[in-house]
């Protein structure tokens, strides 16, 4: 059986729309996070390829209400092939191998605008990519099961390909139930309580890593620096922007 037919066989029984999305063309990168080629989402998420060092680029966006400072969480739909039924940050996905999304930070921001509309129904006119604040990149390995996983790096290198983004803007939601089965706005204390009450397996691995290493100090910095209109503005955190490598293995 060829590799392609093997991969297709692994998708049998999954949701048809989610199978279709596995053909999207992700960005395969080298150890310096430089474009190498495109690769299907299916190829990039297969654990056998991941274990052989295949790297692809991703982003994780955290959306905050500018008036309350609350964070929007989503619960991934049961139809999702990787990490179904898990709580995570507002939007996490992949820049695609298209002209508007291959250029590092700007490409990640453009991808975030696209996926906020796809997953949560947030109109693109409500998401100005220039208001999205890049903070850093992380390297992690997180397995979903024995077949599919997320890999934004490799154990044999320290490539950083997961772009962490903050955004503060008022939004309206029209959730895509094939992507998201629940959502909620939480304060810092409410998130801490939620993570204490629920089993750790209720949250995606990358979300737990970001929470443990960065989120609360960045979130507190956001709350400590409202703009002149007394609203919270992610661009006020530009001083925290860093290309430092964070190895969260």
TrEMBL record:
Listed cofactors: Mg(2+)
Gene Ontology cellular component terms for the protein in this record: cytoplasm
InterPro entries: IsopentenylPP_isomerase_typ1 (IPR011876), NUDIX_hydrolase-like_dom_sf (IPR015797), NUDIX_hydrolase_dom (IPR000086)
Keyword annotations of the record: Isomerase, Isoprene biosynthesis, Lipid biosynthesis, Lipid metabolism, Magnesium, Metal-binding, Steroid biosynthesis
UniProt enzyme class: isomerase
Protein name as it appears in the record: isopentenyl-diphosphate Delta-isomerase
Any Gene Ontology biological process: isopentenyl diphosphate biosynthetic process
Span of domain Nudix hydrolase: 54-209
Pathway the protein takes part in: Isoprenoid biosynthesis; dimethylallyl diphosphate biosynthesis; dimethylallyl diphosphate from isopentenyl diphosphate: step 1/1
Domain of life: Eukaryota
Family membership noted in the UniProt record: Belongs to the IPP isomerase type 1 family.
Gene, per the UniProt record: IDI1
PROSITE patterns named among the record's database cross-references: NUDIX (PS51462)
Molecular function terms from GO: isopentenyl-diphosphate delta-isomerase activity; metal ion binding
């Amino acid at each position: 059986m060829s590799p392609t037919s093997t991969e297709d066989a692994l998708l049998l029984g999954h949701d048809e729309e989610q199978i279709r999305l596995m053909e999207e063309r992700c960005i395969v990168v080298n150890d310096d996070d430089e474009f190498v080629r495109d690769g299907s989402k299916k190829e990039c998420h297969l654990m056998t390829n991941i274990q052989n060092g295949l790297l692809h680029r991703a982003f994780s966006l955290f959306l905050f209400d500018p008036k309350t400072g609350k964070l929007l969480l989503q619960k991934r739909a049961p139809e999702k092939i990787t990490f179904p039924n898990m709580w995570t940050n507002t939007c996490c996905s992949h820049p695609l191998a298209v002209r508007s999304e291959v250029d590092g930070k700007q490409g990640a921001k453009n991808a975030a605008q696209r996926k906020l509309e796809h997953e949560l129904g947030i109109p693109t006119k409500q998401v100005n990519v220039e208001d999205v604040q890049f903070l850093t990149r992380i390297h992690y390995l997180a397995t979903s099961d024995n077949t599919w996983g997320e890999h934004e790096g490799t154990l044999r290198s320290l490539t950083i390909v997961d772009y962490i983004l903050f955004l503060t803007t008022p939004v309206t939601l029209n959730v895509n139930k094939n992507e998201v089965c629940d959502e909620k706005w939480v304060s810092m204390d409410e998130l801490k309580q939620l993570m204490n009450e629920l089993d750790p397996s209720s949250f995606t691995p990358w979300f737990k890593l970001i929470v443990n290493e960065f989120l609360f100090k960045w979130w507190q910095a956001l709350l400590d620096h409202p703009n002149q209109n007394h609203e919270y503005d992610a661009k006020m955190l530009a001083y925290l922007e860093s290309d430092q490598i964070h190895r969260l293995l």
